[in-house]
Amino acid sequence: MHDSAIALYNDGLPPVQPIRSAGDRTDESKVWLHHIEISDDEALVERYGVRIPVIVDGEGNELDCGFELERLSAWLRERGWLDEAALAELTALPDTTPPKGAHKRDGRRFLG
C-alpha cells in the first residue's frame, strides 16, 4: 500500500476526510488530506494569508490562488492522484434527450 499526503492551508473551511488516490480504483493507496487552520498561527497567516486556500504535497510543491478545474486536474495528474474516470463523469455534459413515456422531473411525474 502506498500513502501520500497533501496539506490544505485555509482559514475557516471545515476539515476534509482522507480521500482515495487516483489510478486503479481497486488499489489500496490513499492520499491523506490534512486540513491546517492558519488563523491560529502568525507565521502561517504571513505565509499563506493572501493565497488561501493552498494545497501542498509531501515534497513542498504548492498550488494556490484558487482551484480552477484545469489547474487542479493538472496538479493532481502530475502526482498520479487524479481519478480520470471521476473527472470525466463530473465534467460530462448532461443528457438532453427528451424523456419518452412517464418520467419524473423535480419530483413531479409527467406522462409523455
TrEMBL record:
Residues 101-112 have a biased composition (Basic residues). Residues 93-112 are annotated as: Disordered. It comes from the Bacteria. This is Uncharacterized protein. It comes from Vreelandella olivaria. The lineage of its organism: Bacteria, Pseudomonadati, Pseudomonadota, Gammaproteobacteria, Oceanospirillales.
